[in-house]
Structures are given as C-alpha cells and as structure tokens.
Amino acid sequence: MINKKFESTAQAVADMKDGATLLVGGFGGSGLPSHLVAALTEQGAKDLTVVSNNIGAVSDGVAALISNNQVRRIICSFPVGPHAEDLIERLQSGTIELEIAPQGTLAERIRAGGAGIPAFYTPTAVNTELGEGKEMREFNGRSHLLEHAITGDYAFIKAHRADRWGNLVYRKTQRNFNPVMATAAQITIAEVSEIVEVGEIEPEVIVTPSIYVDRLIQVEAQHEGRVLVNE
C-alpha cells in the first residue's frame, strides 16, 4: 500500500547531505514549510544551495538556515527584509554567494527544470546588471537573455491537504512557488495540515499530482498575528 507519510519532520529530512540544493516554497510567510525548515536546522546539513523567492521576510524561513551557518549559496528574487541582517553580514564577508533573479524569471527557471527544459530566452533584465555575462540573442527585433533551468536535490513545500499517495491541494496563496518547486526536485517533501484517504479529494481540485511528491509530513495549522501561514 502506498503511504508517503513520515512520522516526524526529523525523519523526513534525516538523509539530507552537505552540499545539497534545496528549493523552499512560500511567499513571505504564506505557504512557507516552516516545520521542515526548523527540522533541517536541527539536522544540520551544511554548504546548501537554497532557492527561494525571499530570504529575510520571516525568521522561521531561510533566514533560520542562514543564521545557523548552513547556507553557501542563495538564488532568490527578494533577498531583503526584517530578518536579512545575517545574510548581509555574510555577503560582506564573502561566506555566502547570492544570485538575484527577477521573480517571473525565477519561477520560469524552476518550471523549466521540472519540465525537462534546460534553458530558455527571455527579454527580462536585458541591459541591466542582472543580465551581465549572459548569452543574448535577438528574436523578432528584441533582445533576449539565455536563462538556465533550476532543479533541486530536495524541495520543501507546503500544502493544505494531501491523500496518502501525495496528491496535494493548496489553500489560497499557498499556491505560489510550491506547485512548480514540487516538480523540479529529486525528492519533494510536503508539509500539510491534513492527510486523508485516497478518493477523498476530488480529482478536479488536485493541483500537484502524487507523482511529484515523495514524502508527507502532517503538521498543525498555524495562525499567527503577522500572517495566516496556511493562506
């Protein structure tokens, strides 16, 4: 019987190795797999390459991994925020590498990775600092930059409901980077509020099919003053 549920977050992240590439879903606090991130800070894997939309928006996100000296390289679109102090210090000291990507380009690079597309051209960031050193070609009279796909060894994502096979449904703005990241990793671990039996989720509302999900962990829904994490 297929059952992808793990009994603890610690068990779900136990095999992560130093040097892994990790995709972390979420947009600010919404859709952030904070329990999985917390488990990884305890597990201690280092020299990670982390791909996430924003880095310093909340203290229990990627900022926690940075503060714990676990991150070597970051690819993101928004590296600033109230919890970005440690990132700034490490950038200044040269202990962390930072690659900034426009938000739409970041999402498309991840989507391309999940679809098996190695690279694509986009006009975004042409003639800016973000485009320096990248291959450029002209299509229909307009310049475009070559952007390479992003894939990960692991993806941490958050959804609202899953069945034991790993079919996922998201709640409102949880549906941000989570669905595309689920497709682009070798091992996708989903943090969910509820796990039900197969057949209890209508097929038409499934956003992420179970083929993309390797592990499930059920956590209690969090309602916080600054944000409804399950939004």
Secondary structure blueprint with pairings:
Layout: H1 9-13, E1 21-24, H2 34-43, E2 48-51, H3 62-67, E3 71-76, H4 85-93, E4 97-100, H5 103-115, E5 119-122, E6 136-139, E7 142-148, E8 152-163, E9 168-169, H6 178-183, E10 185-196, E11 215-218
Parallel strand pairs: 1-2, 1-8, 2-3, 3-4, 8-10, 10-11
Antiparallel strand pairs: 5-7, 6-7, 8-9
Number of domains: 1
Shape: globular
Distance between the termini: 32 Å
Count of runs of 4 or more consecutive helical residues: 6
CATH hierarchy, class? Alpha Beta
Instruction: Characterize the biggest β-sheet.
Output: 8 strands, mixed
| Class from helix and strand fractions | alpha/beta
Offer a concise description of the structure.
The protein is α/β, with parallel strands linked by helices.
